[in-house]
Amino acid sequence: xxxxxxxxxxxxxxWADGGHPDGTNSETARIAVRRWVSEIDGKVSITGVFADxxxxxxxxxxxAIFVDGTQAWSTSIAExxxxxxxxxxxVARGSRVDFVLDPNGTDYAxxxxxxxxxxxxxxxxxxxxxxxxxxxxxxxxxxxxxxK
Length: 148
Description:
- By secondary structure, the chain is α+β, with helices and mostly antiparallel strands.
- The protein has one helix and nine strands.
- The strands form two sheets. Strands 1-2-9-4-7 form a five-stranded antiparallel beta sheet, with no helix packed on it.
């Protein structure tokens, strides 16, 4: 349930780079979740910023990132605080990455910036070495066949 009246609870909201969860002072605590669904198979890098944007008072907020229902990262930030995050995860087509805002008690001033960037991980050097070795082997076989 989202309330369009910003002067009364509940205040659960999402916007492009963050959101606002509901806390216990709104009768029922509600988390705010933004979801990304993978269109690729493989490793991804997830980086970003989690910061209190609620004016620097009250009880801060908690944030977490789940990959297919398993918690991959979490933190609590105090009023006015912020933190960067960066980690890798394996995904498949249809995998879900959920960015969760938790009110950490009351929801006064819990506006939060939770911006993230998800990119395909760069292949490791061993992958390039194997590719080059395979291409060299195929080239050698083709050359040998050509000489016969």
